[in-house]
Amino acid sequence: MPYDIKDASLSKKGRLRIEWADDNMPVLNLIRKRFAKEKPLAGTKVACCLHVTTETAVLMLTLKAGGAQVSLCASNPLSTQDDVAASLAKDYGIPVFAIKGEDHKRYYKHIEAVLATEPDLTMDDGADLVSVIHKRKGHIPLGGTEETTTGVIRLRAMEKEKKLLYPIIAVNDAQTKYLFDNRYGTGQSTIDGIIRATNKLVAGTNFVVCGYGWCGRGAAMRAKGLGANVIVIEVDPFKALEAVMDGFQVMPIARAAKIGDIFLTVTGDINVIRPEHFLVMKDKAIVCNSGHFNVEIDIPGLRRLSRKQRMTRDFVEEFILRDGRRIYLLGDGRLINLAAAEGHPAQVMDMSFANQALSAEFMKKNCRKLEKKVYKVPVDIDRRIAELKLDSMGVTIDRLTMEQKKYLASWEMGT
């Protein structure tokens, strides 16, 4: 079995961590039990480009239980947990191509390695896998899924230009994904990553959140909970208004740059923080990103402004500007929640990866009937996952009576 990992001797530690995540993913456990009986993915080759974490490992085991032939590469050079990669390869027999800190060349070599299997389905996180497929114009899969906001944006652009070569389900758009994973998962894990990297006190700081989508909402909420003065940067008037109503200051980045202590980008766009902003930042300002790609911070621009750089802590790079001020970049501008911490907690990834597993099953059954478009997760799948999650938490809810259903379906009844 081919694989490319950092150190096979890490497998024992990785296996223990995978078991811990598995114990905290009850929905995916239920799906895996059914998959093991029914084998809905029997004979299906699935190429996965995802963050190689403990939670992803549980998803891989679920797909394998369903009969899939799975191969896995990293969707970000700094997100791989090397012990998990080792365990998947050595303990569970899954071809893994991922090493934390891999360079650009090796990153794409690993993508090519999973594509060499000529997959029937793809499972992507950021659409790099899909992008390579479309550029190389070789084997075309029957269908796929996409995990992230960034990836879905790229895929919808391809669909609009009629360049998308096969149907893909936007897992990110499921309510049991973006309302929970993006808000509660990114919110908690991003703050966790910042604190692990810096050991800084968040309370009392001016914490600047660039972007008030679901990830930005989560990060702002958690920073506020730790006592930060949260400032939100937005270009969308609706989201900006929501941030104001949620109790946050809203202002342009040019103003916030002068007063911020910690800056976080979660926009999915390029060069949100630029040289003109670095030039007015405080001494020892901290800059980081939790969007999928490290393009949100103009790192080349920061390098040009600095006269010296050095690593002061793991994942903390100090840039000394010409006037002596210091700016600290965390995790090379990559997802700080995965670069310096462990990513989303298993309890929230339970829902996200349940969507992935069930969407893969749906795509296997229906791909030949679907057009070359981006599809939402079927509502019945999304709803079923919510019900299973509530059940696993011991939470019960009411059901509408027949009288209530009739009232909601009619127009005659009023006051």
From TrEMBL:
Residues annotated as domain S-adenosyl-L-homocysteine hydrolase NAD binding: 182-343
Molecular-function annotations in GO: adenosylhomocysteinase activity
Entry note: cofactor: Binds 1 NAD(+) per subunit.
Catalyzed reactions per annotation: S-adenosyl-L-homocysteine + H2O = L-homocysteine + adenosine
Residues noted as binding substrate in the record, renumbered to the chain: T53, D125, E147, K177, D181
InterPro entries found in the cross-reference section: Adenosylhomocyst_ase-like_sf, Adenosylhomocysteinase-like, Ado_hCys_hydrolase_NAD-bd, NAD(P)-bd_dom_sf, S-Ado-L-homoCys_hydrolase_CS
One GO term describing the cellular component: cytosol
Keyword Iron on entry: no
Pathway the protein contributes to: Amino-acid biosynthesis; L-homocysteine biosynthesis; L-homocysteine from S-adenosyl-L-homocysteine: step 1/1
SUPFAM superfamilies (UniProt xref): Formate/glycerate dehydrogenase catalytic domain-like, NAD(P)-binding Rossmann-fold domains
Entry EC no(s): 3.13.2.1
Cofactor names: NAD(+)
Binding site for NAD(+): 148-150, 182, 211-218, 234, 290-292, 337, 344
One GO biological process term: S-adenosylmethionine cycle
Keywords: Cytoplasm, Hydrolase, NAD, One-carbon metabolism
Location relative to the cell: Cytoplasm
PROSITE patterns: ADOHCYASE_1
Pfam families membership: AdoHcyase, AdoHcyase_NAD
HAMAP family linked to this entry: AdoHcyase
Record function comment: May play a key role in the regulation of the intracellular concentration of adenosylhomocysteine.
Alphabetized PANTHER family for the sequence: ADENOSYLHOMOCYSTEINASE (PTHR23420:SF0)
Family designation: Belongs to the adenosylhomocysteinase family.
NCBIfam families: ahcY, PRK05476.2-3
Name of the protein described by the UniProt record: Adenosylhomocysteinase
Provenance organism: Velamenicoccus archaeovorus
